[in-house]
Design goal:
- The complex is a heterodimer of chains A (502) and B (165).
- Chain A has 21 helices and 2 strands.
- In chain A, strands 1-2 form a two-stranded antiparallel sheet.
- In chain A, helix 4 packs parallel to helix 15 and helix 9 packs across helix 18.
- By secondary structure, chain A is mainly alpha-helical.
- By secondary structure, chain B is mainly alpha-helical.
- Chain B is built from 5 helices and 2 strands.
- The longest helix of chain B is centred in the first third of the chain and has 38 residues.
- The radius of gyration of chain B is 24 Å and the shape is flat.
- In chain B, strands 1-2 form a two-stranded antiparallel ribbon.
- The chains are: A mainly alpha (502), B mainly alpha (165).
- At the A-B interface, helix 8, helix 9, helix 17, helix 18 and helix 19 of A face helix 1, strand 2, helix 2, helix 3 and helix 4 of B.
């Protein structure tokens, strides 16, 4: 294993790959700081640019955008009280209050240090867990993959912030969209309407650009919201010993919570940051201080969301199954370069596997430098009015969508998905289940077809194989609890009302 | 017929956006089910191209009908409380300008159409008195810089149109 790690450092620390890592982390911090495009949109935009790069370099850059966005999101949360990235919502609660008390520096500093420590710990966890999990995954066949993908998809739907029915509908719509094009098994053209370009299906870039980039801009131009940066001097970015005493345990706990929640399909950075905040508030001797500028309320969640990034790479690299929509874009990037993530990745592309791990160490160092000494630069960027940013974001989306195939159809699709994404937001349909289902759809279909061919049409293959059976049992449990949830909530409210009356 | 239309309008008023969306999804799902049957669902030991499409669209249709009924029973949805006043005008203009971009970029070329798009968007999104000159300068600068970065440096194939270097 140590020779593999050494190989990883050798390839990751080449001048080219370090440069790509730096570019990725800078862009990631930028999209994290600016509310708008988000890491998915930024990754989709740079996907065509990465075609001319080597697979490892392109993956390093795109991965840098993902964990860079987690660092950058805290800056806007603390200074503007608007989350730069969805996973930094919770940081607004205490981070902005700290800034109002003249403690923006320690808040920003602790967010950066917490993210660094958690990021480093999660990479260590990734290195030690990925390989054993890959060995287990070699025993997976089509029924196990089908069951695991169903579980992953349903977990993302289950974690929906709003309506589960709407998230399920979005997931099903994503599956149907993924099956547009020529069926690989039978050669039948599905929903192509005679358009030759659709024989290869709908591209992931126009879909992601539309749903997450264009739709976000449309939603933001609708509201005339001012973005005012808190006027405060940024001093003492290095937290005091007292701050460290209050934060070190939340950082460690956040790292573990984030890492293990990140592994779970549907877990992700948002759930990790909320879970960490809730846990710290429960464990604190002074829970009433949370929401008034408690540094643990910044340290824990910011650590958790960065640790979740490392955890999320485990199912991707070991099983070949992306656990959330952002990792799904990275999955597409690897496939486009002819690298299939999964249990054979370590043996067939050891340099890529270990290179990715090693590059994340470098990425974390770059991010610490970018978010501490260079913080003033990001504060200036925050002051750019949205009326200037919005057209730029749209332009980058157009360039990204067109560049994949030099196809006008991709531009039209992006616009269509943009309008769809905007309508979805208005009606509380979440785009993430649609995106993940879109990417998993073809794999899901192939796994099911192969499973049914193996079992000669019998669905008992999903029950007789233990791993598949376990995954379906968990999925069924989630389905039952999801639909019983409204009833349970009503009963809880009735009971609480009854207790109040008594 | 008139009575049916009136009843439908009342249903839309009661159910709001959710009603309309669910209705559209239900109709679309029904169409997809028909297409899936036409493609052929095959047999269990040899699933056809329409097999999973059929299953997924049936589930989607059932969920859409469930939400349709739910939206009518629940009544109109609550008005979304945002942080600011809603302006739908800019949304429409942005969509129309992007549609125009899609129509003309291939024939006219990236530089000119991008300049036109950015000039329009920078000017339209300004509040108060419009500063056309600054919008024009910014649009020109961004068009040229992005062309140099993406087309010349990254070698992405952006359409040349009327101007070919």
């Amino acid at each position: 294993m140590w020779s593999d790690i050494s190989l990883g450092f050798q390839v990751a620390f080449s001048v080219d790959n370090l440069l790509f890592c730096f570019i990725g982390t800078v862009i990631g911090t930028l999209v994290g700081v600016l509310p708008g495009i988000g890491p998915i949109g930024a990754m989709a935009l740079l996907l065509p640019v990465s075609f001319s790069m080597a697979p490892l370099g392109s993956f390093i850059m795109l991965a840098g955008i993902y964990y860079g966005a987690m660092y950058g999101g805290s800056t806007t949360s603390i200074l503007v009280n608007i989350p730069g990235e969805a996973a930094s919502v919770v940081t607004c609660l205490d981070g902005y209050q700290m800034a109002r008390q003249g403690r923006a520096g320690p808040a920003l500093g602790m967010a950066a240090f917490g993210s660094f420590i958690a990021g480093t710990l999660s990479i260590v966890g990734l290195m030690f867990l990925a390989r054993p999990l890959s060995s287990v995954a070699l025993k997976f066949g089509p029924p196990e993959y089908f069951a695991l993908m169903c579980l992953g998809l349903f977990l993302v739907i289950y974690m929906a912030q709003k309506s589960i029915e709407k998230a399920l509908m979005a997931g099903l719509a994503g599956l149907l969209l993924s099956w547009v094009g020529m069926d690989s098994t039978t050669g039948v053209a599905r929903f192509t309407f005679g358009v030759n370009e659709l024989n290869d299906g709908i591209g992931v870039v126009p879909l992601v650009m539309g749903l997450f980039g264009v739709a976000e801009v449309l939603a933001n131009v609708e509201e005339a919201v001012g973005q005012e940066v808190l006027k405060t001097k940024l001093k003492n970015l290095l937290p005091s010993i007292e701050d460290w005493k209050k934060s070190i345990l939340p950082i460690i706990r956040g790292s573990f919570v984030g890492f293990f929640l990140g592994i779970l399909p549907g877990g992700g950075t948002i759930v990790s940051s909320f879970a960490s905040y809730t846990m710290e508030k429960r464990l604190s001797k002074h829970p009433e201080r949370f929401g008034t500028g408690e540094i643990a309320g910044v340290a824990g969640p910011e650590s958790a969301n960065n640790a979740a990034v490392g955890g999320a790479f485990i199912p991707l690299l070991s099983l070949g199954i992306p656990p959330n929509a952002v990792i799904a874009v990275l999955f597409s990037a690897l496939l486009i370069h002819g690298v299939r993530p999964g249990p054979l990745l370590i043996s067939e592309h050891a340099d890529i596997f270990w290179g990715i791990m090693a590059s994340m160490y470098a990425g974390n160092f770059f991010l610490l430098l970018l978010n501490l000494p260079a913080i003033g630069l990001w504060v200036k960027v925050l002051k750019i009015p949205y009326r200037i940013l919005a057209p730029l974001i749209l332009l980058f989306c157009l360039i990204g969508a067109y560049s994949v195939n030099s196809s006008l159809l991709d531009l039209k699709l992006m616009l269509g998905f943009g309008v769809l994404g905007y309508i979805m937001r208005k009606l509380d349909y979440e785009p993430a289940p649609l995106c993940l289902a879109f990417i998993l759809g073809p794999l899901l279909e192939t796994s099911l077809q192969q499973s049914l061919i193996i079992s000669q049409g019998s669905f008992t293959v999903f029950v007789l194989r233990p791993i598949a059976a376990a995954c379906f049992a968990i999925t069924l449990l989630l389905v039952i609890t999801a639909f019983l949830r409204p009833g349970i909530e009503t009963l809880t409210k009735i009971k609480a009302f009854g207790d109040d009356v008594n | 017929m008139r009575l049916a239309v009136l009843r439908f309008v009342r249903l839309v008023q009661r159910g709001g956006g959710n009603f309309l969306a669910s209705l559209c999804v239900a109709l679309l799902a029904g169409w997809v089910v028909r297409q899936a049957l036409h493609m052929g669902i095959g047999r269990l030991h040899s699933p056809g191209p329409g097999f999973l499409v059929f299953l997924a669209s049936c589930m989607l249709g059932l969920l859409a009908v469930h939400l349709l009924v739910k939206s009518v029973r629940a009544g109109g949805e609550a008005v979304q409380v945002g942080q600011g006043k809603k302006h739908y005008g800019p949304v429409v203009w942005v969509v129309l300008s992007l549609a125009g971009y899609t129509l003309f970029v291939s024939s006219v070329g990236y530089l000119l159409v991008t300049f036109a798009l950015l000039f329009f968007l920078f000017a339209m999104l300004q509040e108060g008195k419009k500063k056309w000159f600054s919008a024009g300068i910014m649009a020109a600068a961004v068009s040229v810089v992005t062309y140099l970065v993406f087309s010349v440096w990254f070698k992405l194939p952006l359409p040349a149109g009327w101007i070919s270097w």
